[in-house]
Amino acid sequence: MRPTDADIGALLEALAGAGVDHIVVGGVAAVLHGAPLPTRDLDIVPCANPDNLDRLHALLERLDAIVRQPGARDLPVRRAWLDGAGQLLLRTSLGPLDLLLRLHDGRGYAELLDRSIELEAEGLRVRLIDLPALVEIKAGTGRVRDRLSVPVLVALLEARERGTSE
Q1: Which helix (H) or strand (E) holds 128?
Q2: Which end of the chain has fewer CB within 10 Å, C or N?
Q3: Lateral strand order in the sheet of 124-129
Q4: Which residues contact 132 (CB under 8 A, 6 or more apart)?
């Protein structure tokens, strides 16, 4: 059984336990920054180092991950796919997990690392995209749901710059 909503804490714990280097982006990053936005999946940009991708693939096998794109016929994830530059939308035993091997603008883990921060979440150290970069990413995707989140994220960013917690 693969749930339709991600168990974010369990997914983050599984990634940490497997030693998978990644940056959390998307809705979970927004929530971890304090935005009151809904999210049903975990979006990550994994480090493209071959050893890291091997660890990620082994974890995906343990989580019974399959491609969740229409017409994919429950295909398990092949290791070779992780060497690509696209996005893999997956269903796992812990819920939806989206692997963004490259963002819409072509940036991957290496290019985003200096735009990320670490914080404590769910009892784990989590690396996530910094708030200004998240605003930039969400504004640039062209997706309606991302454009709708931008004003909330900008307000959060402005409140932080003013030193308030609105």
Answers
A1: strand 124-129
A2: N
A3: 66-67, 87-92, 95-100, 42-46, 22-25, 124-129, 116-121
A4: 115, 157
Q: Which amino acid is at 83?
A: D
Beta carbons of 31 and 42 less than 8 angstroms apart: no
The residue ranges of the chain whose pLDDT is under 70 are 71-72, 122, 164-166
> Alpha-carbon distance 79 to 86, whole Å?
14
Show the tokens assigned to 52: 């890291």
Query: Is the dihedral angle over the CA atoms 17, 47, 2, 32 positive or is it negative?
Result: positive
pTM over the 0.85 mark: yes
Written as one letter, the residue type at 48 is: A
pLDDT for 121 equals 72
Rounded to whole angstroms, the Cα distance separating 158 from 164 reads 9
What pLDDT does 153 receive? 95
- How many residues appear in the chain? 166
Angle between helices 131-140 and 144-162 (to 10 degrees): 150
Question: For residues 101 and 87, is the Cβ–Cβ distance under 8 A?
Answer: yes
Q: Where are the beta strands (DSSP E) in the chain?
A: 22-25, 42-46, 66-67, 87-92, 95-100, 116-121, 124-129
